[in-house]
Amino acid sequence: MFVRILPLLLLAATFAVAQQPSSKWADVDKNLGRSGQESAGVYKVSFPRSDLDVHIGATKLETGAALGGWAAFYGSGNDVVTDGDLVVTSDELGGVVSALQAHQLEVTGIHNHLAGERPAVYYVHFFGRGTAAQLSSAVDAALKATKTPRGASPAAAAANISYDRATIEKVLGKQGQAKGKVLAFSFPRSHKITMHQQELPPGMGMATGINFQPSAKGVGATGDFVVDEAQVQAVVHALREHNILVTALHNHLLDDSPRMVFIHFWAEGSASDVAQGLKAAVDANK
Fold first, then answer.
1. Beta carbons within 8 Å of 186's beta carbon, 6+ residues apart
2. Residue 12 domain-assigned?
């Protein structure tokens, strides 16, 4: 009898071990109902607003280009920081802000990133410190005030780039990350950025992001430049000189050091023209 039971006990013990969270971000996954990705110590969970149908003129915005909410976590133990960017509609805005404050997360920005989109969407930025469990529970409360699709993380979409990817990558001087119809580029700054003396690595929204997508005029591009105050006018000038619309200029942080400015844009045209205009702004931001 003992011989027969022993293998069952060993199997049960093995199963129990396998069910134990293997990551320090297990509480984040549990509270947010989906897994994220870790890179350079930053654990980032995405919440794309795939439920929204948003257009700028005749161009439909790809979710991954401009409608991707997210929350990022960095640190360990009781010393974890979070920041993020939730995409909300006007009727969701009040509930999201109230939920963030009720759970002791700072609201650090509420504003537009686009111009002329229909329906209008808003972006709520937040920051907090505590344990991973506390912070992710607070983010979950804010998400519950929206119609953001929840559940398991959506499967990564296979690349489906119909526009001139090769030209864009050649002009920008680096390879982009393709997901579905979106080709994304990241340009981290070379210095540390902090809020309340807490470091926020590039993966926490501190890197210039440029996203290309199909457009009725060829390609569309949106994103934001993370800019030192002294570089703001040069970047704005480079964008406008290439007929790229500057859609917002504002802060995403409070008590940040050095003081950073975020410049959002929308461009449409040929792959070559749009890429060259954005390369000029990237160069102006060095």
1. 177, 202, 207, 208, 209, 210
2. no
Cβ(207)–Cβ(189) under 8 Å?
yes
The reply to whether 17 falls in a domain is no
* Residues 80, 181 within the same domain: no
pLDDT in tens, 149-182: 998 888 778 889 999 999 999 999 999 999 999 9
Residue 182 and residue 113 share a domain: no
Q: What is the pLDDT of residues 76-133, one digit of tens each?
A: 999 999 999 999 999 999 999 999 999 999 999 999 999 999 999 999 999 999 999 9
19 token code pair: 């069910």
Tell me the residue range of the domain where 54 lies: 23-155
The vertex-31 CA angle with 185 and 122, nearest 5°, equals 50
Number of domains present in the structure of the chain? 2
